[in-house]
Amino acid sequence: MMNALGGNGVAMGYDQVFSALQTGVIDGAENTCRAMSSATTIRRRNNYALTEHLIIPEVMMFSKRTWGHAVS
Questions:
Q1: Closest by CA position to 17, among listed 43, 47, 46, 41
Q2: What's the pLDDT score for residue 40?
Q3: Which parts of the chain fold into alpha helices (H)?
Q4: Which ranges of 4-47 does DSSP label H, i.e. alpha helix?
Q5: CA Rg, the chain, in Å?
Q6: Fewer CB atoms < 10 Å away: N or C end of the chain?
Q7: 17-71 pLDDT, tens digit each
Q8: Which residues contact 32 (CB under 8 A, 6 or more apart)?
């Protein structure tokens, strides 16, 4: 997708993104909202575009007991 938008897409492990942004190896990153709002990435992010071009389901799980406390 980055290439289609005129960028130069590079495959990179998520654990490398923060240092690559810091050193200027990459100018931006693409990931889910949850991943991009992590503590390490948010310190380096100046702008964020919510394009919704890719939706990866994320599941939130908790016990019935916890749910009962949340709704009561």
A1: 41
A2: 60
A3: 14-23, 33-36, 39-42, 64-71
A4: 14-23, 33-36, 39-42
A5: 16
A6: C
A7: 888 888 988 888 877 777 766 656 556 667 777 777 766 777 777 788 888 776 6
A8: 56, 58
